[in-house]
Amino acid sequence: MRDAKTSNAWLSRFGWLVFIWAVSVVATAVVAVLFRLIMGLAGLTL
């Protein structure tokens, strides 16, 4: 019983780690798109 509880806790922590990583990647992508949009509106294009 104790091993199952420990395994569950580990999986829960790993799940939160993956969730937080994914949210940070999405947030970084959103900021990058906003910067591109702002720079495009300012005439700073490649």
TrEMBL record:
Keyword set, alphabetical order: Membrane, Transmembrane, Transmembrane helix
The answer to keyword Membrane applying to this record is: yes
The UniProt entry, under Pfam families, shows:
DUF2474 (PF10617)
Give the transmembrane ranges: 14-38
Cite the InterPro entries for this sequence: DUF2474
| Protein's name according to its UniProt entry | DUF2474 domain-containing protein
Its domain of life?
A: Bacteria
Asked if Membrane is a keyword of the record, the answer is yes
